[in-house]
Design a protein that fits this description.
The protein is an all-alpha fold. 64% of the residues lie in helices and 0% in strands. The protein has 14 helices and no strands. Helix 2 crosses helix 8 (144-163) and helix 10 (201-221) crosses helix 11 (229-239). InterPro entries: Lambda_DNA-bd_dom_sf.
């Protein structure tokens, strides 16, 4: 009787292990590969995912940008027994979360402070030095793929901060939004310059994402009680579907004045008054 019960329990456990991806079919005492074992077993068999996890993808993007900046290929990390190549690809794609020991190895090799990868996954900031490095890159000094990945990381960091902004009615909103808009302009200028000479869709798709993020944020900023003239002007002309040149003609100013106003650069008082009048007319329609 006991033998039959034992056999049933064993069959039940084996069935559960086969159908539940969070259970190691080899049992709790099976060996685990923290890094680059020959069979490249997943770094954390309890956290395998078929779909992309945005939080893991964010951490993976930071790791990818960092290792490429430092010249670490997937093969090199595997050879140094940090993490297997297939596991690294899955992590950077947001489909797999590495074990704690593997994360510690990555942080050591990539010179991240301990716990950085987990903090990025949890929504913490990307290390400033990495964002700064991305912003100073040019497509002439680094391979295009690394350049695009670095700018994507910068954009992702800006988007993360934008998602955490307070309500437009909050006293600190306008200043914080203006700072993010300024960073977006810098990224857009860098990407625009690169797009003139870079082949392939990568930089174009990135530029599209930057412009969409910029437009969404500046329109959001235009709703603040103390919104800047440039923010309100941008929102009004986009709602009216007017180009910069058409807006300039309507206000009786030149196109550069429109560009300066929307970029929060100073403009003559007379031009500001003309633009205020135009914004009022456009928003009353």
């Amino acid at each position: 009787m006991r033998g039959n019960e034992s056999a049933k329990q064993k069959r039940s456990a084996m069935t559960h292990a086969a159908t539940d991806p969070t259970v190691d079919a080899e049992g709790p005492n099976s060996g685990e590969d923290d890094g680059a074992g020959a069979d490249e077993r997943p770094d954390d068999s309890s956290q395998r995912r078929s779909a992309v996890d945005p939080a893991i993808a964010r951490a993976g993007a930071a790791v990818k940008a960092r290792r490429e900046l430092l010249g670490y290929s997937g093969r090199r990390l595997q050879d140094e027994e940090v993490i297997g190549q297939s596991n690294l690809v899955a992590f950077e794609a947001g489909r797999q979360w590495p074990r704690e020991s593997t994360r510690a190895k990555l942080e050591s090799v990539l010179k991240f402070p301990a716990g950085t990868i987990t903090r990025i996954r949890q929504g913490g900031p990307v290390p400033t030095e990495l964002v700064d490095a991305a912003e100073t890159m040019t497509s002439d000094t680094v391979p295009v793929s690394i350049f695009v990945d670095a700018l994507k990381l910068t954009l992702g960091d800006i988007q993360d901060h934008a998602s955490k902004l307070p309500s437009p009615s909050a006293p600190t909103f306008t200043g914080e939004a203006a700072a993010l808009l300024n960073k977006l302009r810098q990224v857009q200028a860098t990407a625009t310059d690169a797009a003139r000479t870079t082949k392939g869709p990568g930089i174009a798709l990135l530029l599209s994402d930057v412009r969409r993020t910029y437009s969404d944020l500046i329109i959001r900023a235009s709703r603040a009680p103390d919104a800047a003239l440039g923010h309100r002007l941008y929102a009004a002309r986009h709602l009216a579907e007017l180009t910069v040149e058409e807006t300039a003609n309507a206000a009786g100013v030149d196109a550069q004045t429109i560009a300066d106003a929307e970029a929060d650069r100073p403009i003559p008082a007379a031009a500001a008054a003309a633009l205020e009048t135009l914004v009022a007319q456009l928003t009353r329609r």
